[in-house]
Amino acid sequence: MKKLIVITGASSGIGEATARKLSADGHPLLLLARRVERLEALQLPNTLCRQVDVTDAEAFAAAVQEAEVQFGPVDCLINNAGVMLLGLAHEQDPAEWKTMFDVNVMGLLNGIHVVLAAMKARQHGTVINISSVAGRKTFPNHAAYCGTKFAVHAITENIREEVADDNVRFITIAPGAVETDLLSHTTSDEIKAGYQDWKEGMGGVIAPEDIANAISFAYQQPQNLCIREIVLAATRQQP
């Protein structure tokens, strides 16, 4: 059996597509999400599904410990769980900002904290953090969301430097617009309509499977090769 991979936010979109891809590649999986019934519906072999909110560090750690008893140590963590709540800075409910920072930043750090010490001790392991093109440049209505994704870029590169001599890899995946339900929680109908027009204007966006393939490609490289960042988007997406 191949080595254990943990995927957060695995119940839909990029997380689901990545679970399917890495399961097909032969890896045992720990899938984490709030909607555990959707994880179980995937019916992937050698897979443990647990209902975990990534902001709950204790639940995250308990699920990882359970999976490691069954499948051995975590070799790869894919921090995919995230929320995107768009809005104008003077109008948006600050509670939405807190939600994004809690999930997109603290949730990611929680996962890193659970697995990193053991990876350093073993001198082997990979952490793949799903950021965004919005972690490289700003967009209207994206102020807090961009803030979280700029943080993901910075955290990933900072820790990569810290653990490079321990032979542990940190990788940033930065997708452009992807066909997922990420936008569905934004409360402004006007913003959602504008985003949809933008996607249609570029002739459609990339699929979650495109991101899953990039994740698999980066992970499957030899441990002595770290693809530090992959940025991918529809050809006609300009920003």
Tell me what the structure shows.
This protein has 239 residues and is α/β, with parallel strands linked by helices. It has 7 helices and 7 strands. The chain has helices at residues 13-24, 36-41, 57-71, 94-122, 143-163, 189-201, 208-219, and strands at 4-8, 29-33, 47-51, 74-79, 125-130, 168-175, 229-232. It has a 7-stranded parallel sheet, with helices on both faces. Strand 5 (125-130), helix 5 (143-163) and strand 6 (168-175) form a beta-alpha-beta unit. Helix 1 (13-24) crosses helix 7 (208-219), helix 3 (57-71) packs parallel to helix 4 (94-122) and helix 4 (94-122) packs parallel to helix 5 (143-163). The longest helix is centred in the middle third of the chain and has 29 residues, at 94-122. It is globular, with a radius of gyration of 17 Å. The model has no long low-confidence stretch (mean pLDDT 95).
Features:
7-stranded parallel sheet, 7 strands
Number of helices: 7
Strand order of the largest sheet: 3-2-1-4-5-6-7
Helices and strands, in order, run as EHEHEHEHEHEHHE
What are the segments in which pLDDT stays under 50 over at least 5 consecutive residues?
none
Number of beta strands: 7
Q: Note the beta-strand portion.
A: 15-25%
The rounded distance between the terminal residues' Cα atoms is 42 Å
Task: Write down the Rg.
Answer: 17 Å
Tell me roughly what share of residues is in helical segments.
40-55%
Shape: globular
**Main beta-sheet annotation:** 7 strands, parallel
- Average predicted local confidence, pLDDT: 95
- Label the structural class: alpha/beta
